[in-house]
Amino acid sequence: DVKVTQSSRYLVKRTGEKVFLECVQDMDHENMFWYRQDPGLGLRLIYFSYDVKMKEKGDIPEGYSVSREKKERFSLILESASTNQTSMYLCASSVPRNNYGYTFGSGTRLTVV
Amino acid sequence: TQLLEQSPQFLSIQEGENLTVYCNSSSVFSSLQWYRQEPGEGPVLLVTVVTGGEVKKLKRLTFQFGDARKDSSLHITAAQPGDTGLYLCAGGGSGGSNYKLTFGKGTLLTVNP
């Protein structure tokens, strides 16, 4: 079964910490995405990557960075965590062709205290 | 910026009832996808529709893409508690961004036994 795996289901971090969220896919997909999901706001795109070492900002990149050193792995970095970054973070991957869906991971529920 | 509006935002019904969820936009999409997300999990792709007027059926779920490719609907017949979840529609772009999806904010469906 094809999979997108996020390294942690739940994380609790302190304000000011540097936080790494890891995502690995086993489908050889070119595209990978990071979203955050908040009640009433839906899914908001943080960053996406369409190739190794390539990245583009999404709609809400402030306070985040990403790394894609290998095709199967896409990391989201919170440089200095803040309480307003408490959220559900979802990683997804897809092929770079129209009309194909995303495969999502199970999500990481991050709480910043 | 392309936007997708979903309605209703919340829906609570009894087992056995029928329901329809709507996804509307002023923009034309190359495709329209529907996802279901269960609590604590990532969204899972249900269907993709690509042709204006297209209708697809998945057991008790019927999906329709509007003739102008600006809207879509999801109809569930004889809803069951297992249908409970967040239903998200997502529109595929065109041209160079065709691998990026625009998500609606979702319809939270609760089916009571």
Keywords:
heterodimer, A: 113 residues, seven-stranded mixed sheet, four-stranded antiparallel sheet, 57% strand, globular, B: mainly beta, six-stranded mixed sheet, five-stranded antiparallel sheet, 11 strands
Q: Per DSSP, what share of the residues of chain A sits in E-state strands of 2 or more residues?
A: over 45%
Task: Return Rg of chain B in Å.
Answer: 14 Å
Number of helices of chain A: 0
Number of strands of chain B: 11
Share of residues in strands of chain B: over 45%
Q: Segments of chain B where pLDDT lies below 50 for 5+ residues?
A: none
Please estimate the helix content of chain B. under 10%
Largest sheet of chain A: 7 strands, mixed
Distance between the termini of chain A: 36 Å
Structure characterization notes:
- The complex is a heterodimer of chains A (113) and B (113).
- Helices cover 0% and strands 57% of the residues of chain A.
- In chain A, strands 2, 4, 5, 6, 9, 10 and 11 form a 7-stranded mixed beta sheet that branches.
- Chain A has strands spanning 4-6, 10-13, 19-25, 31-38, 42-51, 54-57, 64-70, 73-78, 87-94, 103-104, 108-112.
- Chain B starts with a strand and ends with a strand.
- In chain B, strands 2, 4, 5, 9, 10 and 11 form a 6-stranded mixed beta sheet that branches. A 5-stranded antiparallel beta sheet of chain B has the order 1-3-8-7-6, with no helix packed on it.
- Chain B is globular and about 40 Å long.
- Chain B has strands spanning 5-7, 10-14, 19-24, 31-37, 44-49, 55-58, 61-65, 71-76, 85-92, 101-103, 107-112.
- With 113 residues, chain B is an all-beta fold.
- The interface between A and B is medium-sized, with 27 and 24 residues.
